Structure formats: structure tokens, C-alpha cells
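Give me C-alpha cells for this 288-residue protein.
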Amino acid sequence: MDRRAAYQAQETLGLVEHDKLGSEELAEVHMKALELEKSADEKSKYFYSRTSPLESEGLQMRLNVKSKTRAVFAATGTLALALLAACATRQSFTPVVSTVVAETSGGPPSEVIIYASDLPSEALVELDFINDSASPNGKLIGLPNNGDELDPPPENDPHVTFNVHVQSMVPYRCWIHMKVGTVKGRSTANVVWVQFSDSVDRASQAVFRTGTNSYLTAQGSEQQGWKWVRCEATSSETPDALVYFQTTSGGEITVRLQAGAEGVGFDQFILSPAKFLNASPFEPIVEK
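Here you go.
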């Protein structure tokens, strides 16, 4: 295997910020550049052993010009700090770049883990944050139980929406850490319905989409208390609960969690492509 081909950079850089540096800021950038150089040498010896190490005196001379400009670039999978040093008298640019480079590209998809406490209050519709010491950062999302029945999507009952990043056409399993409440009247206090944007089944047919009557159901037990609940497909038309995504916005999709019963609460949501694809989380709080 050609290691050079395997580690070929896959990046696109774009200028997103431009301003002047003072002497103190320049000194700080000088030190950061040296730190990044040292880190790169340690993590990517294959690449950096072919070049001479960056030296403090040489870097300082290159930065010591009349006009200094900095540019912050965003690269796929990396954050790159690039310094463009320009001589005002010549109006020519000599770039000085320090970059932390990802050693591999196209890695495995990440676990999507969302805490209730991550979300802003504006994301909640007819739901509330409730203090609970057992939840991450002491917060869950829920609603009071008046004993009434709630309707499934596309009915616009109490819900929360938020965006996450996923990989296209990778199977994901949905889990909700649910707090089952007290049964009252017509409410079982143990149901949450789940929908997405850009979601499809393995045959690339649209399923579980927001604004439709297709959804996943997370239904907890009748026993009160906390439990990890798997999202299931309850319709005979979509028997497979694994969900895929055909993303059209850089991997970002919208998740919609709708209360299926009054009195239910939840504090964590997971879309798992690997770790919890076939097995339930076992810890009360899954670490990110």
C-alpha cells in the first residue's frame, strides 16, 4: 500500500476572517505556531521528517514585517490557522502556515449524542426543561401529565427540534433515554415519536420524514423511572427501524422528537451507526 496516497490531504481552504495583528498578538501567534509545529512533528512523523523544523528565530524574522495579516481557514475535518505576512512596500505575500492535518480521511461515522441540556429553550414547543439530578447537567425535557391523550405526527403536538450531522447512506439506530412518568387518565407517560429530515430506508425510499404520518416510536415500559428505549418502526409499511440519510446540506439533518404521552420525559438522544447499533447503552449517561 502506498502510504503517501493513503494520507493524501483532502482539504478545501476558504478565507473567513481578515484583520491586523499588533505586536502582542503577533508574539502570541508566534508561540502558537511553534506549538502546532511541535504537535505536527509528534503526530505525523512521516510527513514532517522530510522538512526542517520551524525555528523561533526564523519564524520571528518572517513575521517581522510592516503589515501583518491573519487568515483563519476552515478545512474538511481540520481547523487550520494560516498566517499571511505581507510586505507593504512590495505588496507581495509570503505565507507562513501552521496546520494540524488529519492523518486519515473518510473515517468511520461518529456517534450522535445529544443532551437535553445542549438545546436552547427556543427549540422547545409546549415542552419545558425540568430539573433532575440524574440527568446530564441536571436537565431533562418533559411536560406535565393532565391525563389527556396526544396525537402522533403529522399532528403538531409538543415537540423539540434540533440539527445534527450524519453521514449519507449509513445505517443508524435511534435511542432515547426516557423517564417514564405516572400513568394518569388516558396518558401512559411513556411514549416519544421521532422524525427526521432527509431520512430514507435502505432502498432509498423516504421514511420517518417530518410533516408526514411516518415516524419511529420509542415506547418505554409501564414501570416508572429511567430506561434506554429503542426507537421502533410500528408501521407494517416500514418494518425496519434502521434509518439512513440522503443529505443535501453538508451532512446536516433535523431531528424532531414529539411527546407521545403527557408526563413523559427524556434527557438524551442517540443516533448510533456502530456502538449501539445492535446493543442498548448501559450507562445512565453516555459520554460524548
